Amino acid sequence: MTTTTHHPETSQTLDRGLRALEELADAPTGLTVTELADHLGVNRTIVYRLLATLELHGLARRDAAGRARLGIGVLALARRVQPLLRDAAAIPLRRLAEEVGATAHLTVVDGTEALAVAVVEPTWTDYHVAYRVGSRHPLDRGAAGRAIVAYRDSGTKTYSVTQGELQVGAFGIAAPLVDVPGIEASVGVISFGELDPARTGPRIVRAAAEVAKALR
Length: 216
Known about the structure:
By secondary structure, the protein is of the alpha+beta class. The protein folds into two domains: 12-71, Winged helix-like DNA-binding domain superfamily/Winged helix DNA-binding domain (Arc Repressor Mutant, subunit A, Orthogonal Bundle); 78-215, 2-Layer Sandwich (Beta-Lactamase), CATH 3.30.450. It is 44% helix and 19% strand. It is built from six helices and eight strands; from the N terminus they run H-H-H-E-E-H-E-E-E-H-E-E-E-H. The chain has a six-stranded antiparallel β-sheet with strand order 5-4-3-8-7-6. A two-stranded antiparallel sheet has the order 1-2. A hairpin with a 2-residue loop joins strand 3 (103-110) and strand 4.
């Protein structure tokens, strides 16, 4: 059960609807109306009204067993967020790529995968890793995903380092975005040349902090 302190200028109904979406997002197998009512600390009648409104906008659905789940309308909203993420990351990623001489990227969580939503390649190197927007990989492989998982599981704010987990001979270093509500993401670089974590890691942490600040 979550509790919220309401200010006079806020909408209690909207707050409950948003909290309902958060609860559904944290329940992959869905929630019954009773379970959702318990989590929100409200009665079933209110939950029925919330779900009816969310279903009308495609943000929630109820399966054959009556369990409430997120609706596919959430995916459309998520796609519209990606340009905002790319805008926030553009300058920090460009600076990082040029300083380090490696391909820089912003990666977000998409289900159980890490999804690259912004990629910047350095302009002055003879060669660099070709990494594309839309590239996906499991969260437990590669520095980008490992940095996110480490922050999620234990609050680790420093950088993660990997070698050869996504491409043979490729080195990766990434740091999580810290204290950005609703977004699990990391900033990192990937290179075929070995990277010095002591030199590169702090620069990546700084770039991640710059992106996080732009998103708050």
